[in-house]
Amino acid sequence: MRIHLSSVCVDDQDKALRFYTEVLGFVKKHEVPLGEHRWLTVVSPEDPEGTELVLEPDSHPAVRPYKDALVEDGIPFTSFAVDDVHAEYARLRELGVRFTQEPTEMGPVTTAVLDDTCGNLIQIAHTH
């Protein structure tokens, strides 16, 4: 068994697609119209057949209060692996990304937390 899909709930699929591809560097994998929304996934260009991230609409009534509570408490919704948190932090800051946590060493891992502009905090991390 392996992870095939993971989701991040977004407030606007178009905005999310731009951010996750043009800023974070993911690549669009699937875009299938489903009425008001789309089945919209992105993948890492380093692993195009790997785990897909679904840019899921946050229209369900339970989702926004949950997301708001996580953001209010500074808790990331998910985490993405990077080779070097400091380098990725610098690259993303240059692109105007807002971080709620600068690179921080936590034992064997370094993390930083960014605002994905779609209602989520996202952690980036690398293991030393």
Explain this structure to me?
The protein has a single domain, classed as 2,3-Dihydroxybiphenyl 1,2-Dioxygenase, domain 1 (Roll), CATH 3.10.180.10. The chain has 3 helices and 8 strands. With 128 residues, it is an alpha/beta fold.
* Biggest sheet character: 4 strands, mixed
Q: Quaternary state, please? A: single chain
Based on the structure given, which CATH architecture is correct? Roll
Report the principal-axis shape: globular
Helices and strands, in N-to-C order?
EHEEEHEHEEE
Please, what is the CATH homologous superfamily?
Answer: 2,3-Dihydroxybiphenyl 1,2-Dioxygenase, domain 1
Protein name: VOC family protein
Organism: Streptomyces triticiradicis
Pfam family, one: Glyoxalase
InterPro entries: Glyas_Bleomycin-R_OHBP_Dase (IPR029068), Glyas_Fos-R_dOase_dom (IPR004360), VOC_core (IPR037523)
Topology:
Elements lengths: L4 E6 L2 H11 L3 E8 L2 E7 L8 E6 L5 H10 L5 E4 L3 H10 L4 E8 L2 E7 L5 E7 L1
Parallel strand pairs: 1-4, 5-8
Antiparallel strand pairs: 2-3, 3-4, 6-7, 7-8
Please describe the structure with a list of short key phrases separated by commas or semicolons:
128 residues; alpha/beta; 2,3-Dihydroxybiphenyl 1,2-Dioxygenase, domain 1; 4-stranded mixed β-sheet; VOC family protein; VOC_core; Glyas_Fos-R_dOase_dom; Glyas_Bleomycin-R_OHBP_Dase
Give a short summary of the structure.
Residues 2-127 form the VOC domain. This is VOC family protein. With 128 residues, the chain is of the alpha/beta class.
